[in-house]
Amino acid sequence: MDPYLWEWGSLLLRWLHVVAAMAWIGSSFFFMHLDASLRARQDLPPEVKSAWQVHGGGFYEMRKWAVAPPGMPDHLTWHKWQAYWTWISGALLLAWIYYAQSELYLIDPEVRDLSPLAAAAFGAGGIVLGWLVYDGLCRSPLGRNDAALLAVLFAYVVLVSAGFAALYSGRGALLHTGAVLATIMTGNVFLVIIPNQRKAVAQLLRGETPDPRYGLEGKQRSTHNNYITLPVVFLMLANHYPLTWASQAAIPAVVALTLVAGALVRVFYNLRHAGRGNAWWAWGGAAAAIAAAAFLTIRLGPADPAAEWPTQAAMVPPAVEEIVVGRCAMCHMPAPAWAGLGMPPKGVVLDHPEAIARQAYAIRLHAVLTHAMPPGNITGMTAEERRVLAAWTAGR
Ligand code: HEC
């Protein structure tokens, strides 16, 4: 396909995905906040709580009926399409970038030499399986104990990330772990929360009292969504930052620490909005978790061999030029020789000494401190060559 189509397709899908996700996360944070700020009032029946808000030049009084109001309102807004569109656009974006261009983004032969078809099949299958196991755990007897369920789910997600780390490039593993979590969130809305809501409404219309089990199950799933939200966004962004996946071995730990950090930040807000004080310790814990993740990726990332090599002159030595031109320039030149690339990726050109000198820091970041480039080491850069680049880029 025309490279311009690839680029534009990727940009438009990402645009849709980010906007839909903002609308979804925005409304879900809003309702979590609203739920926590509801108060009982003397003049209202016990099952009704209310909260006041001020926004956009007016005051709003929001009321919540624990299960459903005594009669169906004429106008009822369902909050679901933000979630569905986030998932649909995310699935398309995943296929567009990671499955259709898997040699650049997903497959790392040093991890596992998958064919593009197998890589895509494991990804799509893993995401579906990821949901089925989660849903099964929630419906099992374990589901009746919220704390035990959360502990098991935490271990489960870390295990999922280890599975993906054994199959894919680091960025592919983090992104797929994020995709499993995002699918759990959407599945919760699509397959549990909304259907339960519909059942309650149907009972209401028949003049019956809605079964509170529906509401409780929905609340459990939306609490999971609440704790997952921040880690998902982190995992979706992390694939753009190679230092977060510099070490394949550290990926499960990075995922675990991100889950902890994201959940702790939500704990802070959930308590604060419920009027139960400011749990500043939660921020401390989250910061410590992120610092630990950063520390681990640095310690476990590819060893920095620069120490053993003397720093060379500022100019680009012929040996460096030869390596970069040989291993990088087929993609990173004004008219790339690599099929499917219409222009140098991210505008990074590496085909002549001046350009190479300008990119010294980026070369260090992407080919020495991490092995993000060449993608999946597709051009077969050797450890020896990385040592030469390490020596030349030291201190840049
Ligand atoms: C097979 C093609 C290919 C080869 C070979 C290749 N790259 Fe890349 N490079 C890419 C692609 C694709 C991207 C865009 C990645 C993205 O979108 O995150 C990229 C991005 C980059 C970036 C920008 C990263 C950013 O996020 O700003 C740098 C720097 C880079 N490559 C350096 C190198 C170096 C150094 C080499 C040689 C050691 C190299 N590349 C070899 C395809 C290649």
UniProtKB/TrEMBL annotation:
Keywords, alphabetical: Membrane, Transmembrane, Transmembrane helix
A Pfam family per the record: Urate_ox_N
Stretches that traverse the bilayer: 12-32, 81-99, 114-134, 146-168, 174-194, 227-243, 249-268, 280-298
Residues of the Urate oxidase N-terminal domain: 4-296
Protein name according to UniProt: Urate hydroxylase PuuD
Source species: Elioraea tepida
